[in-house]
Amino acid sequence: MSNPAILQVLKEPHDRETFGGEFWHADITFIDPPSSVSILHGIEIPALGGDTLFASQFAAYDALSSPMKLMLDGLTAAHVYPDMPESAATTAIHPVIRTHPVSGRKAIFVNPAFTDRIEELAHDEGQALLDFLFAHSCRQEFQARIGWASKQVLVWDNRAVQHYALNDFHGVRRRLQRVTAMERPGHG
Predict the structure, then answer these.
(1) Catalytic site positions
(2) Considering the entire predicted model, what is its pTM?
(3) pLDDT digits over 49-71, tens only?
């Protein structure tokens, strides 16, 4: 019996793309409130490849210049589920710089998988700023690389990191199971 709360993250031997595509992202940012934490359980792991990269959005924010931080403060961005009409179920507006509800630290909160636009800026201005933030937020010095083993469990905070699944294992099956907890309104 399958549980609808458990998402199968699967790449079959014939698949060319990984589950979720080839983008840095935080899980389920197109809902308000967004996700808080994700748990990923390795079930079938390739002998080589398939690592996951994580990038600290606290570190990315801290590395911005003071004028850039000042400019970003107060801006909001639309996070949209790809290839779906915008609606309350597929689109959410979040601060570009988000204060973590538990730690109180500031973090960049945009990602190339779901962030569509900056609400307060003209399209070309917003796109240029998003392109900068997408590149900046996943710089190598902000990253950690996690290799997978069968039965391994990994937990991360979507409010503080982005992640990216490396697609360097072709012709073999990889299966993980993911559960994502959503923030509770007003509770973080």
Answers:
(1) 25, 27, 163, 178
(2) 0.93
(3) 999 999 999 999 999 999 999 99
